[in-house]
Batch of 4 targets.
Target 1
Amino acid sequence: MEAKKQNTYLSLYCLIFMTSKVTMSSSTIIFMFILFIMTTVVCSSSSNITIKETTLEDRYKKWLGRYGNLRPSNMRNMDLKSRFEIYKHNVQFIDKFNSENHSFTLIDNQFADMTNREFKATYLNHEITENPTQYCENVSVDISQAVKPPPVSLDWRKKGAVTSVKDQKKCGSCWAFATAATVESLTFQKTYQLLNLSVQQLVSCDGSNDGCKGGYGDKAFEYIKKNGLATSDDYPYTAKNSTCKSNFSKAATIDGCKSVESHSEEQLLYAVAKRPVYVEINSAFIKQYRFYHRGMYSCSKCVVHKLNHAVVVVGYGHNGSSDYWIIKNSWGENWGDDGYMMMSRNVCDGQGTCGITEYPSYPI
């Protein structure tokens, strides 16, 4: 369409020139030529902007087709024009980031039409204001006396000790998912049965925590020690605070929990070599974390204080010149690498990427 307009303008200027060349001065001819060039450039620029905008609109329509129903229910009926503007802003950030030289890539996943504030309020834990391992026994491995070092790499998923990735949805229950996941792995190690345990029981029944508004792993471990944990079939997840049920069967229990020595990736390595470990991290660089797709999530993209999200370390390894942790998240399989993240290891002066070594703990 724009090309036709430009051809029309060219024909018009040629006609004017041919019919007026006898009386037209050279200065007039030059002026009209410049005017034609300017018109062509403006039309071309307008065309590029229109095409770019249309492409983004088409991209958003495809995104809605895939992720529209995965958004929090309170956002599904909101003004799509406003949502598109948020999506456009996020996509521009994602595309720019991916065009640069980074160790990981981003993608417009199910969170792409949410603002940072909306995302933080919906999916992240409250910032840690107390020691989340106070109910756990402190342990420290005497590495110099260790019988043998941990294996170079380990993935508890390959050993059958990790259940499928779950989705916490519109509920700040990452603490409950991470707690349940570590108890699932412990139960497997004890019984060789891999059970999906109830996150909702922790959200609804653990009065020492705040349900969908956040919580602490050590308090959740203490609750499970006293009350046990049902299966997710017996007590299904609803992603909201509710009255605690009383008619459920205890499928798993623990004797307590232990906390790993802080600020030591070597101590965390020895712990993960024995079982998956609950950790608190900081996802303050929210866009890089929430849009993470694949690759090595690096230290420079995260700080080590103001921890606000709980995940599980389910393994570790080495990739080329870099060491990494394998992180299991609770934002569904559409996030990251099928729900997992490869996070850089042995960096940040022992504190680890995103403060991963600040408060590690595990059930016993």
Target 2
Amino acid sequence: MLASPLAGRIALSIVAIVIAGTIAFALLNLKRGRVDPTEYAIGGRSFGTIFLWVLLAGEIYTAFTFLGAAGWVYLHGAAAYYIPAYGAIGYLVGYALLPRIRRLGAERGLVTAPDLLANYYRSPRLGVLAAILYVVLALPYVTLQLSGLQIVLSSAGYGWLNGTIGAAVAFTAIALFTFTAGLRGTAWASLVKDGLVLAVVLFAGVALPIHFFGSLGGMFAQLQRTNAALLTLPVGDAPLGQVWFITTVLFTGIGFYMGPHSIAATFSARSDNTLRRNAMLLPLYSIVLIVIFFAGYAALLLVPGLHGPAADRSFLLVIARYYPPWVMGFVAGAGALAALVPSSALILASAAIVVRNIVRPAFPGRIDERHETLAMRVAVIAISAAALLAWWLAPETLGSLLLVYYSGITQFLPGVVGAAFGLRLRGIAVTLGLAAGVVTAALLTYVLAHLGFNPGFGGLLVNLLVVAFVEWLAPKTKTSPPMANSSFEAPTTD
């Protein structure tokens, strides 16, 4: 379809209705009354299977899923298959790990991921370091969502809207929503987001190949003739080759739930079995992810010649060229929610971290619950502004931003696993290992990227070696607190 101001107005009006309707739906379903920090940040530890399902699925249905996965298939072909592969490992890890984290959080009144580390290892310094790293690492993830939002809105405007301004306005709206609604509001918004994204992904991945190539088989037959190299991984340690794929799948899978918003969602669970049921149900989301690859391959054949960040908009270009603007409106509305709602959860988790693990320790005994909740709301606005600034200064392709995020947050794995399973590690060992892992991952990402394996995986190996070395050097008497016995109870029925 030819671009026109009218087409842009139609599509953008639908996007605005989708965003506004989702916010209104979430706000209307909020509890009324006083909101304490636990209710605001982790929903009062009361979420059941449905809310927890959509919150934890926020790691899956994001702007990266919606655009970056298709863009990676467009540019790199089979290398994008790491996305559903790491999810399969992540759910196995989550089944064993998350119930223990939830129980420890409930027993000790924990709200944030740094709470977990500082409390278990009796190390305030570890808590502060973890807090700073978590907030810094949140910026690439939110920047990823903003980049996706910009692509969605500029595509929906058919060239007649400045996507940067549109994304800033929409992001400001979701920041104000998060300021008001907390995690419970984010969970209600996630219900709408996941339903709409699911419908659009199925449309894009199934309807496009059938409409243009007759069937999935017809599309892959044409790919075999024109782009056969993209259907297999490069051999050995070539860039994005087999070594990279294996290390990325293992590394990203085991770090799947290390994000601050994932641990906050874990603390929000009503029971251990709620988390176990989610670990069994979440693979259904990963099956749907495969469908978006079909949209990426279809876009490669229909709009060839895109390079770099332009590939992230490949599937939206197909929608804009071949479908009416109302279809683009619903597709872009789903894409906007896929960027905004996960951003809301991460910004909220980061705000709670800033207040509980940086501000409150600096003013011991001087911040009551009412002021703590207010401080979290203010931190939501401050972190949102910082994310907008980072996005304007350092835009990158969506796939690269996601890998930077995972390279950093997975360095928390030794400390989190040690706490969850009651390992008697010293706080100094975990602290030094975390610092060494993050520095190594950064060097491998920006200085030694040519080595051909996932940089975060190398950082995690160094992290584990440092933890082991410090434990070996330290005196044999151990003072780390043991885990409460209830953390080792067998699964029970709710």
Target 3
Amino acid sequence: MDRDDLYAQLREFLAGLAAESGREFPDRLDPDDNLFDLGLVTSFSVIRMILFVEDVTGCPIDLADHEPQAFYTLAGIHTLVASQRQEESA
């Protein structure tokens, strides 16, 4: 899965989270927008998002290996997945 595909999958997932919580999903979501600051992800829903990322990428994410800030943005999540894949192939 390339970066743009991951971003599209995450945007769709986040739109679903927003709908569940009665929040409005922004018309534009940039890769560096903070998902927590926008109210799209909370301390409760971040686990669902991580499980979703693992599911769509097939890449297990070890939370002990990553700082929480890695999950703040779409770009951060992509970087995390890319680094995890690099570690797996090494």
Target 4
Amino acid sequence: MKTNKIVTIGDSRTGKTSILSRFMSNVFDPTHTTSVGIDWFSKTVFFTEDGQQRETKLFLWDTSGQERFKALTPSYVKDARVVLLVFDLNEPESLQQVVFWFQQAQKAQTNCTYILVGNKCDLERKCTAAEIDQVKIQCQSDKYYEVSAKDGTNIQTLFTDIGKELYKMNKQEEDNVQPLTIESKVDKPSRGFCC
């Protein structure tokens, strides 16, 4: 079974680290400085599926949006199951840059799900619905969430939905595993003598 690796990518100052901090610890730090390099966390999400309590462990990668780290995106995204394309709803340029981040991620040739995430929905919106829809199409993303790391809006929903989807994918992969059959050929002992 594959690791449930989830990678956040997007421009600097879009709130990638704040989204993960809100999810991991239910904390928002307005004085947080820009991330440098990469960091990762793990957390288990719990949910109900088919009337049963289920869980999925998520491995979350927080990447830097700084210019000098952009070329490393394909190596970060390698083996990811989900890529969160994060932009700031109040910075239209960060939305347009999501297309660049998507193209960088595509270089990893990873078969993964892309989810568009508009952060800072607690503030006045400057990105239009039409612009967001266009970027969704360009980034092959059929899922879109508006969240606020500051007040927690939709953060839990985003990661619980991801956990449910990964649970289903993992279950399907387990169900499709074929048992390994090993044929044993045992040679008959020869009738020779040994001294």
